[in-house]
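U., I forgot to send this yesterday:
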Amino acid sequence: MENEKPTTHNREPEHRPAPVGFAAAVSDLQQATRTLVGGAAQRETRRAVLALALPLVGSDLLQRGVNVVDALLVGRLGAAELAAVGLSQLLLMFVMALVYGLGVGTTVMVAFHTGATDRRRRALAARTVLLIGVAATLVLGCSGILFSGPVARFMGAEGRLLALTLDYLRVTWFLFAAYVYLHLMSAIFQGVGDTRTPLKAMVGVNILHVLLAIPLIFGVWGFPRLGVAGAALASGLSEGVGAAWLVLVAARRGFFGIRRSGWSPEELWRTLRVGLPAMGERLLTHGMQVVYARIVIHFGVAAYAAHQVGLNIESLSFLPGLGFAKAATALVGQRLGANDADGARQSARQANLLGLGIMSVWGAAFVLFPSTWVGFFTPDPDVLAYSVPLMTVMGILQPPLAVAMVVSGALRGAGETHVVLGAAVLGGWCVRLPLAYFGGVAGALGMTAVWTTMILDWIVRGSIVSWRFARLRLEKVKL
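Result:
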């Protein structure tokens, strides 16, 4: 279907006179509609993208929902608790960058073997990554326990904010395996092309999380009042149940093969070759965000609390972009495994258009109703004072953010993770951080200037990855 050629009945006969007046307007409208909607191949590709992406959006929304619920609940305890959970989640995402790289490598290789209809190699790739997950859990969890204090102090946390942050993180690191395997199992299902099963898992995770978080945070229904530590405990336990369920479903469906043991050094290398640059990209991105948050904390607890609220709100808006990015990764990988370069490029194009359209609508809502969005998270007047400049920036950056995310996902599916890494370095470390510090802090332009640098960051990243993908010869890509 991807190679469908235009037929003669789609062509205008040479003897037919050009339409005029109302007929010309109707003809122009029909032509524009055909261009926008595309032919049968484009429509089928769009349906495939939506079928894969929409459950991913739902899964990521529910994944973020765990963090958002924590923020909403502990926000009722006070600004310090809200800031502590936000800081803890930022540090957790920094460590999860390494796991994310494994997830990208897993999705790409599982998708490639799925497209090539090689079930044996797919099972080897899945088993290999799960074994690596054991090592990642031990190394990263122990590192988190040892270095949480020094890193939190570097971030500017002190006094009660430091104590609350460490309360949250201590629980998190002991349950770190839950976060690792929920992510890796979801990546395996995405590579196979099944995004509905991870969605079902996240529905269960969120229901269980709410049932645990309310009593553990506030000490109701006979539970002890644990505050921020209760939020961390609820998150870890609920995600652990979700990860265990996905492992059982994958085993029943044969994703790990008949033997269900053993691993492949070749698959390890191929996964890491794709995953290591993705690890570096996420590590550098989250490292940049840690330094960026340190700049924000310079303006006080209220400014950082507002920043954290903005990130939680933005996390809802970029979920469509993230879903379409993951769909592009899986579909491009599958199409390349099937030696279909045209299908890979068309999948990326449709994912980009859909992600851009949806996120632009979110951006308009942020600009039009800034105080309403921030008011959902906190009634604190000092935090609400930042709502208009914060949400205006969050709204404007949605289109470049969408393009950067989705095209980066397509590049990952083609194994071009090093390009995404380079774009993150240039956009985050060479543009955002220097301009935020010298403009917002040294230049005394304030928080609005600091937040504006996020727009410039994503414009740079989007431009780089779009340039590379447009020039990439997919028919010659070898994973």
